[in-house]
Amino acid sequence: MSHSITFTINGEITTLDIEARRSLADVIREDIGPTGTHLGCEHGVCGACTILLDGQPARACLMLAVQADNATITTIEGLADGDKMHPIQKAMHEAMSFQCAFCTPGFLMSAVALLEENPNPTTDEIREELSGNLCRCTGYQSIIDGVETAVRLMSRGES
Amino acid sequence: MAGSTQTSGLGFVGQSVKRVEDERFLIGKGQFVADVMPDGVLHAVFVRSPYPHATITSIDVSEAARHPGVARVFTGKALNEVTQPFVPLAPQPGSYTPIYHAMADEKARHIGDPVALVVAESRHIAEDAAELVVVDYDMLDGVGSIDRALATDAPQLWDRADGNTLSDATDTYGPVDEVFAAADRVVSITLDSHRQANQSMETRGTVVEVDGVTGLLTVHNTSQGPHVLKWAIAAQTVNQGRMKSLWGFVRNTSRRKAFFAAAKDFRKANKDDLKGQDNAGMKGQLKKDRSLLKYMGRMGLGLLATENFPTVTSVDIGGGFGAKGPIAREDIPVVVAAMSLGRSVQWIEDRVESLSDGGQAREERFHVDVAVNNDGTVKGLRVDALIDGGAYPAFPFGANLIGTLWKVYMPGPYHFEAFQLRSRIIATNKGRVVPYRGPWANETWMRERAIDAVAAELGMDPADLRSKNMMTQDNAPAAFITGPTIDETMSTRKTFDRALEMIDRDQLARDKADAEARNHRIGLGIASYHEAAPGPPNFADSISPGSGMLLKEDGRATIESDGRIVMYTSQVPHGQSHQTTYKQIVADEFGVAMEDVEVIWGNTDKSQFSFIGTGGSRGGPLGGGVMRATAREIRKQVDELAAEMLEADIEDVTIVDGNIHVSGTPAHGISYADVAAEAAKRASVTAGPVFDVDLKYEGVGNGGWSCATHVAIVDIDLDTGQVTIPRYLVVEDCGPIINPAIVDGQVRGGVAQGIGAVFYEKAFYDDDANLLTTTYMDYLIPTAMEIPEIEIEHLETLTEGENDFRGIGEGGMIGAPAALTNAVSDALGIQVTTQYLPPSTILELAGIITPD
């Protein structure tokens, strides 16, 4: 049985008829189209599918799409303002944070959520906050560096 | 973004140029296999064995097939009947390498062995229908360990093998018996490493796209070696209407002539390699299984009859670490399904499948004897090694690769006078063994752990024992006793000496004392190694005579009629930043900006055949090497024509920022477009390449060794068994560095996987071979909380060679388990004999708790 849901994703209002059992991640990728949200484990551990749901980080693989009815969703595609990169994107480029980049969308969204809540985190706070996202390539140092670079960019008002 | 706009002239090579790849990744525009969704694509789900070892007595797919939305359900038997099996490549003398099909049909041999395939309109429907497939199994006893496999009453996995031993090879270098007899003493230790899983964040996957009109296939895939996949698909799906084209091929005179001409060229080009090859292994294998001849023949034809066979392609791949090198067994049935349904089919492995059948590695045991004199001079090394090979040998490379690399590497940078290795591959009811980042890495763990054990027995400091025995630039012989040449690039001693300088022993002693007061223990561990990256010219022959011909790297460079520079690579990036580094190399050669260079990768129609693709730390030395070599060749041609156009001597032609001019008169320059237009005019062409060079590259006369020393300091909390790493130092020498930030990333990533291996990650099988770790709640990938900052010091030993890049991708993982287990041994004042050290084991080793 399908259900009609409406949510705002990356600034656009979308209404869809979907099966109740489908995950939010699948609906975003398959029905709406942007594939930047990645599925790494589909059981809520790796964090690659992290999105912002009403400003809070959420695992799009663990949520049913029907639970997102009336929500406001931001995915990696919604971070930049047109051609203008979000400071976290600039910073991760500057710090050469990623390698294969499969985990990237999740880290970016978790980092955005962290910096919105705590614009000046310590290194330990960054490590702890990002420990819900797995990266197999980098050993994390370059990602931590990226977040710290973003803190500097944002404190200089380059946002 | 800023990265690609840096100007030429200063040289891009050697700078931490920002990644070109980021331009798509950071905005969510990467294109991974799961992002490929052709219109009307069907979704494939495998029904897999829930038992480690069982006879399949019947499969009933009728209910599943009737489920609404199901396109078709294939039994393993039905799929195997129309496909060729995997055959062994390069079997060892005396070995039996099983010939097996992509699907389990009569017998399931591990948890997750695929027994049926459901194809449906959606993944959900396919999963639902998979639950409706009824498989009857007769359970057999599972073989869950090497010990169980070797027991006299053990169930046998493969009928034609000798018990569960699939290969048993002994290699001897130097007078081992005499050296051992003459030594003052022999120190022995038995070391066990545990099963680990590569676990890239993107699982494996394939999307087989069928062209509605021509029926031709495009296979979007996560393969690190797409040409071998293309070959396997061509050869193994031969009954699926392809046999006709193969016979057509044989009967077609012009193609047959081309075939024999190509074969003749191949024989001529690889004369020495072919002459040197040792076919004893293959002959022995034939005695055990005559069907090999038939199947090898068909595989051979598949290799050469490439017409009408699929294009294998990828844009972005989310990591691999070796697991995506061998062919995914699943790819063959998915191709068959797509061909027989005439529809595109997608299979994306889920994480549970990945943890059971996505590739595992490193479950190995070593009985080590070190002959040593009382003054600490090491004399001889004797190792009896066992590899838990799992159920199915990976194709083309897996466990079969490990022993052959061990025999070359194992004595390491030390002056051993004699060395003997016996290595056996043992079949068990576990997942496939695949190459994992430095597939041979346990030779370093084994040797460096044994060195520390010897030091302890002699009452010496492990660093002093290393100093006494490690080759220096002055006293190194011309070659290792195992064969490969030593040159100035074998700089392990330099990395070791530098690492020692960077350790403050007095501070360490104070830290140790402070730690004891907190009920903590602090320890120091050192490990040194070298790896062939790509190794000297005789390295391949030292592994297996004649194997050099498999290892050459092809590349191609063109300048198009409009002046664009286009480079083609057989490398398959999956995180290594090939696009950035190759642009750096080529832009320097042509004197242009990086954005003026286009790099084409990930398409078998546009790259030359490669047995390996990306693996073996080849991307820098060979992949980068052939980029540079082809670019130089074309640059010469450009300079010649430009000299004519500028009416100047060729020596006076210089190119800065794409301005081709006579030195000193940049205002009167011409562009690549001008030179290309002139070349096009002379050749009377209006489109396509006007300069075009392709060549094979093997790093002959240059390249060499990549070397490093790792130092770990661990802090163990005796209340909890938790281990932290206050300092981790890598001193490495990979020669001239193309992009320091990228090299650092490779080193750190490798060390992180080594930390994971020692303290967190283990694929647990019980005695009956039931897999207990099938989610990330059980198989623990370390997070940002567990991986410390890693200090890296670069030495850059240069040589006279024209291309001197040396690989760096694997080393981090090679050194880390040794340095870490040595540090734990030092902290606890014991000799660690297992590689896996979770808190419970730490507390057992410390004598605080007793094992169950």
Largest sheet of chain B: 7 strands, mixed
Strand arrangement in the largest pleated sheet of chain A:
2-1-5-3-4
Question: CATH superfamily membership of the largest domain in chain A, which one?
Answer: Beta-grasp domain
- Estimate what percentage of residues of chain B fall within beta strands: 15-25%
> Which regions of chain B have little confidence, pLDDT < 50, spanning 5+ residues?
1-9
N- to C-terminal separation of chain B? 58 Å
Low-confidence stretches of chain A: none
Provide the structure class of chain B. Answer: alpha+beta
- Could you name the CATH topology of the largest domain in chain A? Ubiquitin-like (UB roll)
CATH architecture of the largest domain in chain A: Roll
Q: Which fold name fills CATH's third level, the topology of the largest domain in chain B?
A: Aldehyde Oxidoreductase, domain 4
Chain pair forming the biggest interface: A-B, 58 and 56 residues
Order of helices and strands of chain A: EEHEEEHHHH
